[in-house]
Structures are given as structure tokens and as C-alpha cells.
Amino acid sequence: MGLLPGISLGRCIWRIWLNNMMDYGQLKELQELDLEHKLIITKGRILEWCEYWEWLIYVSFSGGKDSTVLLDLVCQVWAESRYIHGNSELQVVFVDTGLEYPEIRKFVDLFIPYLAKKYDIKINLAKLKPKMTFKQVLVKYGYPVISKRQAQYIREIQNVTGKNEATIKLRLTGIRSSGKYSGYSKISKKKWSYLKDAPFKISEKCCSVMKKHPMDDYVKKTGRLPFVGTMAADGAG
Q: Are residues 25 and 97 in the same domain?
């Protein structure tokens, strides 16, 4: 199968994702495709994003497996499209939170020149640092335990303000203000409800402060839009 059919299919799928129209059935259908078609669709999405933002993009690279695969795919598209973007540098951003293993930092430094040579493209690696240390985040906001979603729910019920009764009720019982039940919106009673009485603060804000905020500042400074590699399952928090 050639590139043009792949790009056409990729753009079709991209429009579905862009408009938030994908349901579980569509996601499952895409996940069941063979690797060849997954690559075609993914590269089509990458090209669509680059073209839409006139190549003012960057790749968020953590050194983990998901962002490593994503970066390699973006490099492929970047190389194949060099005559469109004028052989410009691909921008890659790594946030050094201070929590990364030395091996991850070494891998990041080695992988960038490897990709540049492999695809014969220019890559610029920007390294960012958060404004707060991990210890400062823990003291101010709390510990990021369990998952982001559950940590958020616990933080909300640990902070009673007198104006958030509906939120506290939702997190404890799953009952919305409309009276409808939402099991997804409450703390797991069997596993984690006891943590609401923990003698320390719990919060999901660690990732936002240490990774998202530096990226937000980078976007404001450069005007570039990101590629971020995450698994579909990560969306559940």
C-alpha cells in the first residue's frame, strides 16, 4: 500500500479524533488493525497535525517507551516531508524533573543524534526544568499516590471549604447533583476511601507542576504545538 492511500485514511481518522467523535467501538476497531495499517494511519495523523500547524510543532520526549515510539514515527514523517517544511529542524522537548534515572537522561542524549543520523534530519533538543522541586511540590500540594484520578478525588475531599458539598458528595457516593449515579466519579471505597483521613496531603498536581507547566511555558514562548505519546488506557487516570 502506498503513502497516499495511507494519508487519506489517516486524515479521515484524524477528523474523527479531532472532533471527539470516537466511541469505544471505533477505538477497539482501530486497535485490532494489523501493524502495517496502524502505522499508515498514525503517520497520516502526524502529517495532518504538522500541516495544520504549518510545521510549528514539537515532540514531548520523556525517554519512556511510548514517547520513544512516537518520536521515531515523527522523525520518519519529518524526513519524508523535508521538501515541504524546507528541511527545518525538528524540535524535541525533554523536561528534566530531577526524578529521572541517570540511564534515562543518558538515553535521551544518545537517542536524539541516533535519530538525526538514521533519518538524515536536523533535530534540536530543548531541556526544560520545573520551577519547583519534587519536595516543594509534596509540601505544598501533597503526595501523588494511587492514580491521578483517585489522587484528585482524595485531594478534593481533604479540602472542605463549605462551598464544595456537591463535589464531596460526588466523590464519596458517585451521585451527581442531577441525582444520577457515576461510579467513575467517586473514590474506590474498598481500596482507597480510608486515605481521606490520612495525616498528610494527597494530590494529583505533581505532574502538572513538574511537567505540564514547563511545557505550557515553552508553548507560550515558541508558539509550537506538541505531540504527546500516551496509551489509550492512560486516559482513564
A: yes
* 123-128 vs 225-227, strand pairing mode: unpaired
* Amino acid identity at 14: W
**Over the range 113-149, which residues count as b (16 or more CB within 10 Å of their CB) and which as e?**
eebbeebebebebeeeebebeeeebbeebbbbbbebe
> DSSP assignment of 35-64, as one string?
HHHHHHHHHHHHHHHHHHTTT-EEEE--SS
What is the number of residues in the chain? Answer: 237
Q: Which residues span the domain enclosing 194?
A: 145-202
Same domain, residue pair 12 and 40: yes
Say if residues 93 and 59 touch (Cβ distance below 8 Å): yes
Backbone angles phi, psi at 220, to 5 degrees: -65, -40
Q: Please answer whether residues 199 and 158 qualify as being in contact, where contact means their C-beta atoms are separated by less than 8 angstroms.
A: no
Select from 7, 1, 15 the least CA-distant residue to 81. 7
Tens-of-pLDDT digits for all 237 residues of the chain?
A: 233 333 333 333 333 344 445 667 777 888 888 888 888 988 999 999 999 999 999 999 999 999 999 999 999 999 999 999 999 999 999 999 999 999 999 999 999 999 999 999 999 999 999 999 999 999 999 999 888 888 999 998 888 887 888 888 888 888 888 889 988 888 887 788 888 889 999 999 998 999 999 999 999 999 999 998 876 655 544
pTM: 0.78
Give the Cα separation of 89 and 121 in Å (integer): 7
